Structures are given as structure tokens and as C-alpha cells.
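Box 3.1 A note on notation
Throughout this textbook, protein chains are presented in two layers. The first layer is the amino acid sequence; the second is a C-alpha cell string describing backbone geometry. Keep the layers aligned when reading.
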Amino acid sequence: MRMHRLTAIILFSLIGAMSALCCTSMIVSGSATASGRPLLWKHRDTSAESNFIHRVDEPGKIGYVGLFNGGDSLILDEVWMGMNDAGFAIMNTVAYNLPENDPNWADREGFVMARALQSCRTVDDFEEMLRMLPRPMGVRTNFGVIDADGNGAYFETDDYNYKRYDLRDAREGVMIRTNYAYSGTPDAGKGYVRHQNVADLLAAQISTGSITPASLTEGVSRSFYNADYGLDFIESSDSRVVDHDFVPRHSSTASIVVEGLLRGETPDRQVMWANIAYPPCCHVVAVRLDNVPPEVDATAADGSARAPLALEAAETKALVFSDKEPDGRRYVNLDLLRPVSEEEYHKSLEAYSRMRR
């Protein structure tokens, strides 16, 4: 184990800190899930310190529940994942191998997703919206969407163009995206190891069509598996490990799964399984279109909106990363993390059990 740790430290010093915007995501067809419902998953990495979930209703627009940056005002014009009253859901990951944005028009992904949630009912609606948006769009991203009919797609999108990848064409009914686009510059971008981490961790469930929301929030988002080493460091005897090329990272602030619909179900049957903080230090809460639990919501309208659960988890995360120590954010204190993650894991299992469908 000492050699693994030394090698990782050397690697970290050579490449430097990765960008904070390094999300990991997956779309899963109902044919590949235990329940028969499609799944839309985003493990979020961001420079925003925390998240909250809030219900948005505006006259003449589709209502939705979305994930917002902690500290936002309640104008709520940028959303980072969500599901709406028509059974449509959306998320994104940055794609660093797509063309760079026009410097005067960038970082518009949150605005695009808010607009989509208020206007789109289907995957095709979202494509039509992309076609109609003025150029440059101000995005450099992989948009992932599902709808009430069980359709899903990734749209690898830059300022002027997009490439659609349909879930129905995906091998074994799953699609993974990290921080590169399949249609982008080959061997560029970021997240290749994280992509393989997800594929390795879920290989058995993919092959048997038995993926669940917990496979993602409790399996992948709590795992310190690194495909380059073939090792999950949280299961090792190591006390600390360099924070590099795991799905959970210092910049991780959420792991959210939207569990979609069986054919014929109404949109109110959707569930957003929401872990709204550093995933190993927090647990999922079940969110419905008509029920956003107060521990994940925020109501302050003055730009200080934060969810109680996110604030609580942030205190634990600061201990795990020793933020007050020099270089503390580069290392995960596994001795502190293991019992915390185990406790939060059992809380998540209780939430899943209470809403067994």
C-alpha cells in the first residue's frame, strides 16, 4: 500500500490540481435497471461550496424541482440538475475537449438547463430548443436528458453545434460521460480514469441489468476506487490517500439520481434521490415534485440560501480533508472518513427502504 500512495503523490505533483468542474454522470435505460425505470445520475464537482434543492413555479411555464448553488438568491435562473412536471429531467458535465467558448459568452449551461426544465417535455423538445437557441450558445458541455417515455440522450454541445447520442443505441443500455465528449478532440479533455472507475464498479450490475439509484449514490459516489491501480483505497489499510482520480473529490458537492417513470406512470411518480453535499460525508434524501424536504431546501432570498444538510456535511468534510493544514485538501483522511461514510451509507439505505416502490 505504501508504494501505491507514493506513486499517487508523485503523480499529483507532476500534474497539479485538476479543475474543480469535473463532474461524472450516467444515463441508464430501464432495460438495465432493477426497477425498469430509467436513471439520470450526476456526481457534481464545482467551485460552489454547497447546493440546495428548490421547487420553481412560474406562470405559463412547466414547474420543476432543481439543484441550485448554495449562496444563490432565489431568482433561480441557473439550475444544475432537475426534473419537471412533464417527466423530463436534465443534467450536464463540462466537456473540455469541445471547442472553447466565445470569451464574451460563456458558462451558460445553468441558464440553458433552467430554460429546458420550464419548456421541454421530451428529449426531442430539448433538441429543438438547442436548434433554436441563438449562437453562440455559451456552453461547452455534455447535456444528459431523459423523458416520461423512457427515452434518453446525451447532447455534446458547444457554442455552435451539438452531437446527439441516443440511449436506445447504447450498448447494454448505459451511457457514461465525465469531462470529455466522444465527438470532441480525441485523447483530450479530462476524466478518463473516472469514466473507467464507473464502468469497472458497475460491470456486474450492467451485465445483469440490475442497476439501482443506490448503485450510484452509495456504490460509485462513496468509492475510492482508482482503475489505474485496480484498488479501492477506502478498503485498504492506508490512513491517508492523495485526492486524485476518484469519483468523489474535494470539489464534489452532490450525487443526484433522478429515477424516471415506467410506461403509463404519471410524472409525480418521479423521485430525485439527492445527496447534496460531499457524498461520502452525507446521505440521500428522497425528493418529489410536490415534496422538497426542508433539510435540502433553502428559502433565504438575499443571496445566502443554503440547505441545513449541506452545512452539516461541510463541517465533517473539513475534518476529513484537514482544510486548516498545509496541503490538507490534497489528502483524504481515510481513518476519519471510513466510519463517517459507513454511518451516512446506512442513513441512505433507510431512505431508500422507506420509499421502496
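The chain has one domain: 2-9+20-354. The chain has eight helices and 17 strands.
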